[in-house]
Design goal:
The structure is a homodimer. The first copy, chain A, is of the alpha+beta class. In chain A, 23% of the residues lie in helices and 28% in strands. In chain A, the strands form three sheets. Chain A has a three-stranded antiparallel beta sheet. In chain A, strand 6 (140-145) and strand 7 form a beta hairpin. The radius of gyration of chain A is 16 Å and the shape is globular. Chain A starts with 11 loop residues before the first helix and ends in a 9-residue tail after the last strand. In chain A, 34% of the residues are buried. The interface between A and B is large, with 49 and 49 residues.
């Protein structure tokens, strides 16, 4: 079947890539969480700020842990990769942050050398999700009340048949 | 089939639970990362410190994000749940940290009310993994070199058939 499907509602993580100005590599948009901000909200906000595209959070795909990360003030850095669905498609990007910003075919992104190892792996993961269903790659989110504080937390894990998403 | 298999090499996350003294609830052992410490190393160290059981890291299962967590100094807390394999089975626990520490049958842990919602969900996830294979629930780890710094980072995601674990 075609590896370049038309715009479905679940294609943003799939086809969306940024080139950052400093190096000629395609990268996914992203950035730092504000205090008290949920993972998915950070992803949606950063994608909008960097590209002008509005989107919805779908799932968590991957986590990278890196120590002594230059952008993390010498602390360990947790970089969390989310899958989003687009609500709009027009790109309006900041030329100070990147050279180009395009909807790039996922199959091309999975093949190119002009990217990072993480982007290649996530692209392959998304291609797999397109073919087998995203439930094969997703960690879905559930919001649960903390037992003693009464506050809510967000729990991400593989979805099970016997625990339907609330 | 039996839900209480004999001790295989991959049963620690499955059968191992702690009761903390303050509340009468079964919980998995765990604790805070030291600076520069990998997720899996923290899990292995904390399990040893709290229970005396030696183990190996297998995979990442779940992430919880909680804001204004009391134990996180008012910051947002990222709680990461790992699957470990036991290397030893004898329990030697600190009576200051918990009342009891036992190898609890996973099926019992998945059913009991004397636990937290997270422990119940993870127990169900592990039962599912026992029945269908842990590759249905695992996020496996790969260590990759950072492109520019030459340092290594750890990347966790669903395993794909076409990207065998290095």
């Amino acid at each position: 079947e075609s590896r370049l499907p038309g715009f479905a509602t679940h294609q943003i993580g799939v086809r969306f890539a940024l080139v950052f100005q400093t190096k000629n590599a395609w990268k996914f948009p992203g950035g730092l969480s504000d205090p008290g901000e949920n993972i998915g909200a950070t992803a949606v906000r950063e994608v909008y700020e960097e590209t002008g595209v509005r989107s919805e959070f779908r799932s968590l795909l991957s986590i990278r842990q890196q120590h002594n990360h230059p952008g993390a003030f010498g602390m360990s850095d947790m970089y969390i990769i989310c899958r989003l669905s687009p609500l709009t498609y027009d790109i309006n990007f900041c030329t100070q942050e990147c050279l180009r910003c395009e909807w790039l075919p996922l199959a091309e992104l999975a093949q190119t050398n002009a990217t990072t190892p993480i982007t290649t792996r996530i692209s392959r993961l998304l291609l797999h999700g397109l073919e087998r269903g995203f439930d094969s790659i997703d960690l879905t989110m559930e919001e649960l009340p903390a037992v003693y504080s009464g506050m809510f937390y967000q729990l991400y894990h593989r979805q099970l048949p016997q625990t339907p998403k609330s």
